[in-house]
């Protein structure tokens, strides 16, 4: 027959075992339920992050709870606030595990949230110099030459060089051609897009300037989305179309 003392000791061991056993449903890092909900949402957005307004909308939590939870997560260094170059006035959050995408930061064309006009001007001049020396050049040729030269403190992608060439064409500094594969185009495959320095206008003639020339839209990381009724239509774009 088991004594009362033995029964008590057995029950005591069971209770202690339950207390030591981790609760798999408990939030990680000592987070509250609301903090974990918000953190999981932010982390799911990876390198794109999420605006505070969208956090409130997707979690359906009260604004004061969202604000309090965000402050707590920031203090714990689990999330960070990043600047979105296209929406500087709106608060944008990202999990600390990720670095913001080029779409958020603006990529090489932006420095500390502002358009780096000095760097852009340097890339433009470098592209013009290579086209002038090569006489005729494709995007790939210019990109390869710049990559080998290691002139810049940051690496430019081939797509970014293409964007710069687009602005130079809009400024009437270069002209786009399609290779015929003959004569001066002999080294370039047929129908490949290539560029030459634009001829200067004759005496007394003014160069024709495009209404799109030298505006930031030409190097905007979302330029491919632009259209008269597109999601990225800006007051600047509307004003240039009215010219």
Automatic annotation (TrEMBL):
Presence of keyword Nucleus: yes
Transmembrane regions: none
One GO process term, biological-process aspect: transcription by RNA polymerase III
UniProt-listed InterPro entries: RNA_pol_Rpc34 (IPR007832), RNA_pol_Rpc34-like (IPR016049), WH-like_DNA-bd_sf (IPR036388), WH_DNA-bd_sf (IPR036390)
Keyword Nucleus in record: yes
Keywords of the record: DNA-directed RNA polymerase, Nucleus, Transcription
Location of this chain's protein in the cell: Nucleus
GO cellular component term, pick one: RNA polymerase III complex
The family this protein is said to belong to: Belongs to the eukaryotic RPC34/RPC39 RNA polymerase subunit family.
The protein's name: DNA-directed RNA polymerase III subunit RPC6
